[in-house]
## 1
Amino acid sequence: MNVLLGVGGSDDGLTALDRTIARTVEAGDELTVAVVENPAAELSLEAVRDAVEERLAEAGLDAPVVVLEGHAGSRLVELAEREGFDRIVLGGGETSPLGKVSLGSIAEFVVLNATVSVTLVR
Amino acid sequence: MSGFAYPETVAGPYDPPPYVFEDRKDREIRVERYDADTQFEAVVEMYEAFDPADRAQGIPPVKTEAIRTWLESILDEECVNVLAWDGGEVVGHATLVPDGESAYELAIFVLSDYQDAGIGTGLIEALLGAGRESGLDRVWLTVERWNNPAVALYRKVGFEAGDAGSFELEMTAALTEAGTGSGDSRGE
């Protein structure tokens, strides 16, 4: 399977990265990581890209990393469709103090607009 | 939560519990603060009876073990909890949980047999009264935006809606003058 993982620097995105790396190694998937702008995250695009590349290197995965500037959701959907990815993978949302799951704005956009399958990692 | 706008007027103000009232099905409902020493198991029983179809945003958990873990965190003494009782049975629960940024997140749960009977209103008013009694200034919640009965209830008791994402509506309420939009509790 040809997987596009979107990472925007929030905690759930980094969790999704770790889990997707493990899954990619196990299943022999093809993985591309897209670093996207997330207004809700504190990390810069460069810091997120560095973290992504470090974790890929640790796992011995030679996966391409692309940086998508601009509106994260629409850029991810556009890239997935243009390049023929089978699936978009994203962090599955943050948990509130009370334990409520709240979906990030990027995940909301992608779920509502993607024509390929979407996996939200919990 | 920081970044939220809070209303210019105080919600209520509501009296703290206990409340005793008759619901629309003539049941006598008591709303009281939660007593950690004696009532934990009664709350667990309520959530074991909770209809999974009434879950929202991942809570309450379904399995008993997960219910216990979740309740241990939200029934902590730094949270504010009130229970609605029908005789010896807990039929509703409302909670305020600190968000670490000097405001509190609110949630309310009512067993399906006791919904649409006016219990939610009594429960949430008692909770806001208890919160005010405990010195809380600001509360907020998120609600699935298609959940019209819940949104209407929150508006009725003094919440105002903020920015809406696609799926969730954020709502805030002030319990004291200091918690209003023009209050001074924001700049700790």
Note: Residues 19-136 of chain B form a domain with the Aminopeptidase fold (CATH 3.40.630.30).
## 2
Amino acid sequence: MDDIEILNSEDTSEAPPHYEAPPVIERVAYLFAEMTDEAFEKNRESWKSQVKSEFPFEDPMVQWRLNIKEEDGVPMLDQVTPELKITDRFYRKREDKGKESQAKSDFDFAMRCPQGRIELHMGSWPGSPRSFQTLRSECAQWFGSWFKTFQLEKPNKVLLHYVNLLRKDTTPNLFDENGALALGETLSVFAGVPGEHAHLEPPFDCKVGLRLNGVKDGKMRIHVVDASAETGNTAVAVRVHFFAEAGLDAGEGIDKALMLLDWCHERIVERFELIFTEKAKRTFHSVP
Amino acid sequence: MMILAPNPTTAESQSPVREEALEEFRIGQSRSAVFTKVEPKFAGSYTYDRSVVALEGGRVLVHLRCPLKVILNYSSREAEVEGWGLRFPISETGSLPEKLSRRFLLLFSKADRGELSEQEQGDWINVLDQADYRKFCIDRAAPQYTEGIIVQRQPNFVRVQWHDGETENISFPEAGALNDLQKGDEFSAFVRFGQNMTPLSIERVAILSVGE
């Protein structure tokens, strides 16, 4: 998805392709650390004042969370432990909002700070010049100060999450004149569905977890899911999630966490190349 | 896990689909369902996931002994913190931490002045049942003027005899305020004491007489 410098890779002979218009719409980097309730509340205001100049808009994320239990295979609401979760969230708006399509989100860059982790969410859009390096430089700026402000002892793990969206306005060349997404010709996991059929139909939901070698607790998940409901069912849309996670050992700090983020990015790029078909990747406009 | 996202946001797309994909990756739950609106069937009691209420920008903390219950009332479009006399529109739920701080401070202040109404008295009793009030009082206590003498200095503690004859080993980082003092120095300072009269902070140190 991006051109990156390969570090500690088994094969450094060939850099991954760089695309002009990859379908990635959001990249998220997470840093986790042990944090007590007390440390969180004690330093929350101080952290807010630090981030305010660069993330001027505050919009806490409210989640009313319900558990689902299964009885004889039937999913049912479990009323015992519903939970209200409020997450501090700060963001910047896109400066070019209004100059282009109004349908675009004005989300540009957001920071979420629940207890025990910091998340940096970076938006992208077709033609966006943003890459992993943009996100990484923000991580280098904020991870250390978050760690210091909350007086934490050691980081636990990092997680990188890429959201790719296949929708007519983001990847028009993957849709036919009737607006149908040729999923079987786009994602290799769907290309080999056995039997004869005219085309694939929603809902799509395919996920796989992978345990990776090379780092502590390295793991990955790829999740392809129908996102048509987000468009009000007016258009077919599919999200392709890539998650990669790596753990830190005792004594390792923020520098190591940033190196592990690089490692996670490399793993996601590798899988991106394998998951999307050659036909799909041609539509992302590979740069020689 | 189901995640409701009742408030469309101006920030990044709060896609419940995406939130659940993350939850599934992190905690390994496989079942997912997505609702984008609060519906009548979701009305009921929710456990608030934080156990500390911060006052004065985090300088004073109120520790809750048990999780707070927030009642979601679909028909009135309001939420209520059970037992706190705190009710607000569902759309304002994001500022619940600040609302709790203000409510606690208001009840505390009125109780201090003896101005609680009958209803507020009931709320305050409930709040005191749920909160560690003793710890709150200690955290909130102002520093006291105290005099003492340095009895012994060690790498990891300083032994002090207070003016009332009690001696105490003060460990770091609190003892850091006494770094400029030597054995035998008599000093004055403003000290904030915690449980068992353990110093929580020492400030405004002055030397009254020089020792050895």
Note: The first strand of chain A starts at residue 18 and ends at 19.
